[in-house]
Design a protein that fits this description.
Bound molecules: 2-acetamido-2-deoxy-beta-D-glucopyranose
Strand order of the largest sheet: 3-2-1-4-7-6-8
Strand content: 5-15%
Organism: Lindgomyces ingoldianus
CATH class: Alpha Beta
Protein name: Nucleotide-diphospho-sugar transferase
CATH topology: Spore Coat Polysaccharide Biosynthesis Protein SpsA, Chain A
Distance between the termini: 61 Å
Number of helices: 17
Keywords: Transferase
Number of domains: 1
Radius of gyration: 29 Å
């Protein structure tokens, strides 16, 4: 079948002419009619021309498909018309883009960032999951420029992990300068700055930044196809007022937005981190992604009220919640993150409890919660060769708890 745009432009004028309809009329003596040599010659010529026209259009098709995604101004005009509409009038109807191979996945990327080796394994685990789950978009990691991917036997730990990300999980590596703040060793700020560098990755049309203290259970390629917006984020559903969660951010990188973000970071008020900055900038214009499925906190399995997460009084089913979730963030304070060995008494005290008594007892919340942690430990062992990290390396959750921190590490009870 020829696409509509071809039949409209070149094919139909030839076919609908009297010549081609003639054979369909039985009453007409068409052999006589074709007899004059000039008529036959003209017919043959016309057919040849039509053939040449169609072939020439098709031969450039791959290039056009390739060049499809608008690079400068995001116009809504489908690509075929932009090149062709001045060769005839009236203009052709818009091509049905749903049937066109219009999505070029290499325009999109899942982004990880690392500022030092402590969180590198977590990022690697996210990249491995996306690779294993068949994400179609690129995977990209921003890393300090003094590292070098190297899997030789005497390569350093971060260099080996970089090589692993690149060779085994098809990750694009982007070296960056980690910005230090003078007179401050607040690593959280460095992280925030580096995370927001995603706005500057203009080699991509859209990127998804995922926090690495989390588990990806299904890919999220569909988020790359959301209606255009500078950023799309889920709500921080654990907060009692409207606030956006920066655990998952869909970003359209651009020089303009990057300048705005950079400017905001250069004019920080108090202890603002990435989440505060983004809320100030985008709370009125952000596209809101449903937090249900896209930003589930592990603490939810400890909690007793689930209306905020579910969005209604729908009965809570821990297994179903995990089943449908695509992105699960580790927020279990005061328990440590799952790569830090918890003290036995803290572990006993703060893991989720079963509810009910005897026959009626329901332990599904605790079981699901343990399952998420066990899965994390097992993957960490497999991917990075060790299950536990040194607690000295911990960042955010070691910061004293202030109202500020509750945005990042809520407490469920
Ligand atoms: C994009 O559109 C604006 C306004 O319509 C125009 O000023 C600008 O030159 C266009 N840019 C490109 C690259 O076509
Ligand atoms: C058709 O488009 C081409 C390229 O954009 C342009 O050079 C040409 O002048 C246009 N022709 C008409 C009739 O508008
Ligand atoms: C190590 O390097 C070799 C050769 O370049 C490559 O084939 C292999 O996939 C790499 N392995 C890892 C774990 O990066
Ligand atoms: C932002 O991107 C531009 C273009 O790729 C690059 O030249 C610049 O160094 C980047 N800025 C930072 C702070 O990384």
């Amino acid at each position: 079948m020829l696409p509509q745009w071809i039949s409209r432009h070149s094919y139909s004028p030839v076919l609908s002419s009297d010549d081609s309809e003639a054979p369909l009329k039985p009453s007409m003596n068409w052999t006589n009619w074709l007899a004059p040599r000039r008529v036959r010659t003209a017919l043959v010529l016309a057919l040849l021309l039509a053939l040449v026209f169609v072939v020439s259009r098709f031969s450039t098709l791959p290039e056009r498909l390739h060049g499809f995604v608008p690079t400068n101004n995001q116009t809504s005009t489908p690509f075929m018309q932009q090149e062709q509409c001045n060769c005839s009038s009236p203009e052709p109807e818009p091509v049905n883009t749903a049937t066109e191979p219009a999505v070029r996945w290499s325009d999109f990327a899942y982004v990880q960032y690392v500022t030092n080796e402590n969180y590198l394994c977590n990022s690697l685990m996210i990249l491995e999951s996306l690779h294993r789950l068949g994400a179609k978009a690129d995977r990209m990691m921003m890393y300090p420029e003094h590292w070098q991917p190297d899997n030789g036997s005497d390569a350093s730990y971060p260099n080996k992990l970089l090589a692993q990300a690149k060779d085994l999980y098809g990750t694009k590596l982007v070296p960056i300068k980690v910005k230090k703040v003078e007179n401050s060793d607040d690593p959280t700020w460095e992280d925030s700055y580096t995370k927001l560098l995603a706005f500057n990755q203009t080699q991509y049309k859209r990127v998804i930044s995922l926090d690495s203290d989390a588990t990806v259970r299904q890919h999220m390629d569909e988020l790359f196809l959301l209606p255009s917006a500078p950023v799309a984020m889920p709500r921080a559903y654990w907060m009692d007022h409207f606030f956006l969660s920066s655990q998952l951010i869909v970003i359209e990188p651009s020089e303009f937005e990057w300048k705005r973000v950079e400017d905001a970071m250069n004019h920080l008020e108090g202890h603002d981190y990435d989440m505060d900055i983004l809320n100030k900038m985008y709370d009125k214009s952000c596209l809101v992604i449903p937090h249900r499925r896209y930003d589930l906190l592990t603490g939810e399995f400890k909690g007793t009220s689930h209306e905020n997460y579910l969005g209604s009084k729908e009965p809570w089913d821990a297994r179903k919640a995990l089943e449908e979730a695509k992105f699960v963030h580790f927020s279990d304070w005061p328990l440590p993150k799952p790569w830090l060995k918890p003290k036995p008494d803290v572990w006993e005290k703060h893991q989720p409890k079963c509810v009910g008594e005897g026959e009626q007892q329901d332990c599904s919340g605790r079981d699901v919660w343990l399952q998420i942690r066990d899965d994390f430990s097992e993957r960490r062992q497999r991917i990075c060769g060790h299950k536990w990290d040194n607690a000295q390396n911990e960042r955010r959750s070691s910061v004293p708890r202030t109202p500020q921190r509750l945005k990042y590490e809520p407490v469920f009870s």
